[in-house]
Every structure is written in C-alpha cells, then in structure tokens.
Write a structure and sequence with these properties.
Layout (H helix, E strand, L loop, with lengths): L4 H37 L5 H6 L5 H35 L3 H7 L1
Length: about 100
C-alpha cells in the first residue's frame, strides 16, 4: 500500500533516522577500535592526543567521520520530530501554534 503525503514523509524520516543511526554506530565502532589499537602502540601518550589524532592521521579521519555521522543522526532526529508534528496536526486538524502550547 502506498503512503500518501505527510504519512509518506513520516515513514521516510523514520527510515533516514534508522540509516543514520546505523552509520553512526559503524563509524563509532571503527573509531573506538582504531583508538584502542593506537593506544596499544603508544602507551605513554595522553588520552586526549590519541582520541583525536594528528592532522591527516587515520584516527583523525575516523573521528571526523564519526562526528559527521553524529551530526547527521541529530539532524535526522529533529526532522523526524518535525514530520511527526506535521502528521499530528494533519490528523487532529489543529493549528500548529496550539499544538506547541499543549506539549
């Protein structure tokens, strides 16, 4: 069955959120594993240096990829909430300003 209008948008936003979450988990896992491996190689270095890595290092690029994935996840969550509010407004036929004062 094909979804229509706002319901389709809500479904799409949920799908984007799930994909964003999966990508964040993969990026986070890669960064944690690389950080742990680096910590094994260089035991005397402060944690803060190993957490981010030197410019253009593998650790730094994995950290940046993780940060971008986290930002995308946060944006996807906000957009899902906006779509959910639009869907509720359409279902209840209440003005959006009134809905905001209820929640």
């Amino acid at each position: 069955m094909r979804r229509v209008g706002t319901e389709d948008s809500l479904w799409h936003r949920r799908r984007v959120l799930v994909i964003s979450y999966q990508r964040f988990l993969a990026a986070d896992r890669a960064w944690v594993e690389a950080s742990d491996a680096a910590r094994e190689w260089v035991r005397g270095m402060p944690k803060s240096v190993l957490a981010i890595g030197a410019p253009r290092s593998r650790i730094r690029s994995l950290y940046s990829k993780r940060e971008r994935a986290l930002t995308r996840l946060q944006v996807a969550k906000l957009k899902l909430e906006e779509a959910r509010v639009r869907f509720e407004v359409k279902q209840v036929k209440v003005h959006p300003a009134l809905l905001g004062s209820i929640t």
